Amino acid sequence: MRIIRATKVLTGRPGESIADGEVLIDGSTIVSVGPRGSAGAAAEVLELPGCTVLPGLIDAHVHLGFDAKVDPVTRRSPESDHHLLLRMAENARKLLSAGVTTARDLGARGFLDLALRDAIEEGLAVGPHLVAATRPITITGGHCWYMGGEADDDPAIRRVARENLRAGADCLKVMASGGLMTPGAPPSWAQQYDTRQLRLIVEEAAGRGKGVAAHAHANEAIRSSVEAGVTTIEHCTFFTESGHCYDPRLADLVAASGIYVCPTVHGVVWRMREVHGQEMLDAWLASVAAMREAGVRLIAGTDAGFSQSGLDNRTDGYVGGLEVLAETGFGAAEIIEMATVRAADACGVGAVTGSLDPGKRADLIAVAGDPLQRLADLRDLRLVLVSGRSVGQTGVDTVTSSVG
Hints:
Helix 1 packs across helix 2 and helix 5 (219-228) packs parallel to helix 6. This protein is α/β, with parallel strands linked by helices. The mean pLDDT is 93. A seven-stranded mixed beta sheet has the order 3-2-1-4-16-17-18, with no helix packed on it. Strands 8, 9, 10, 11, 12 and 13 form a six-stranded mixed beta sheet that branches. Strands 5-6-7 form a three-stranded parallel beta sheet. The protein contains eleven helices and 18 strands.
């Protein structure tokens, strides 16, 4: 048994803060959370004056092994599976260095994300708990086709879904619309699967007690994702052929469905303005704020692992995305909720992590200062626990990029 004491403890639940609090941990499990002295005695006591203890952060949308250099002719990446897996392991370590103790990897080739997930749980690699989707289901030549999940007709869609689940996928990922970074694939405003096809994937996942994350930029893809009953909508950028076009009635439909939306707000936004222009990015962030006002259940996720126009969205840049949300008008308490308990529920792991509650995994961080007053304090990590193990990686330099 050990006790961790801090000037403030945030449980992760909205508005719940314990001044001069403590957390009692037994091995990998939280035993109690309360004010100083409530846990009784323990063999080990860690005092963290001037610090805040809170649940480990959750990145609900990452790509630890994103391929940026696939040859469209040979359909091959110059990076071998062996090398890619090592880079994925380094990206997982980088996530920890940002205080992320759970991450949902929404697309990897060759089931490498499952190998890394299991290695982390066995203690062979250092990283957060991973919720792995394996190969995204996409049309032939569609967005991220090179990850191996191409399927066009009903039998093929069911086959890829079942193969992913048989391999051990924690959830399924489907490219309901085209994307921005796959040369030759349908554009972001184009729908790749209709409602009926998306329902096939939802049915296959539900049969194994799993959820579905739908990549949906296009308005019609967003609508079909809601009608099909997916678990989360990724990006939800309201793209049409004429450009970004926020649809308040569609946003109301998403809100009424209760489906979580991960708008993938990341810290590269301000640098991307220089490349893509301020108007487009401001419209995107305005739509995120509008979804919030409409009552859409938003969660934190960065889409880390991609590189666009020479700008790398690094896996250790997590807090930057939270700061962009703050500048968009979100409050610190709400942002922390989006990054902990709400994200855990959306990713299907709310029963075991996301908040500091007795019986849950001891996934927590301690930071100097108070992130409710200054969100940037989340960067000043003093302790990172994953299932009760101290795995802090701050101050560890690396020379490799997050992307291939």
